[in-house]
Amino acid sequence: PDVIIEAQFDDNDAEHGQDHLQDLLGEDIKKLSLDTGEKGETKQDDVPKVNDPKLFPDKFLQRTAKVVYILEKKHSRAATGFIKLLADKNSELFKKCAMFSPVDHRVPRAYVSLADCPSDFPSRPEDYSNTLFICRIVDWKEDSNFATGQMAKSLGQAGEIEPETEGILTEYGVDFSDFSSEVLECLPQNLPWVISSGELAKRRDLR
User: Fold this and answer.
1) Domains in the chain, ordered, with CATH?
2) Is the peptide bond before 125 cis (omega within 30 degrees of 0)?
3) What is the structure's pLDDT at 159?
């Protein structure tokens, strides 16, 4: 015999925000309260909580998630970037580590050991302000804002073609080392080698 009144939500309700929505739900909850005794008393357990997410429409909810495990590491963990001294000169880390800043901002900054950096870097850091380095991320503790990296090599000056190219290939895990002698033996040995006319006739020329 009780009439259940459903709350109506439209775009105007969304503009008032979540506080307005809770006020509306509070009023509707009072209407939905069922009499449990002759004196009109209601049980506290029968009244839904206003903050219960199940009462909110999907458009008012912000879904969240948490990373629990990495199944497969797709990134090479190598990055191209620059090194600089830490800002806090009085910290213990200043004497042990430098800061590596990747060019790709999707990769986190990392602490690298000063022992892996050039020997004159602590005394002349400005000399390496435009030098590209390759760093590999080896760890990232949960309680740290920065990862832990290991310096791999110095590439050269930023802006030059060869260092920039080598950095990109290393980041994407492309093997650009020299071909082995076994592979080179598959090539024609009698030089100069030319394509025969018969071979050209049955192939599409894309030169």
Assistant:
1) 78-172 (2.40.50.700)
2) no
3) 86
pTM for this model (two decimals):
0.56
Could you identify the residue written with the tokens 């030098």? Answer: 131
Read off the pLDDT of residues 126-174 as tens digits, 9 standing for 90 and up. Answer: 999 999 999 999 999 988 899 999 999 899 888 889 989 999 999 888 9
Whole-number Å distance between alpha carbons of 174 and 163: 15
Angle ∠(38,40,42) on CA atoms, nearest 5: 115
Q: What are phi and psi of 45, to 5 degrees?
A: -70, -20
Distance from C-alpha of 187 to C-alpha of 179, rounded to nearest angstrom: 11
pLDDT computed for residue 36 by the predictor: 45
Tell me the C-alpha distance between 80 and 163, whole Å.
10
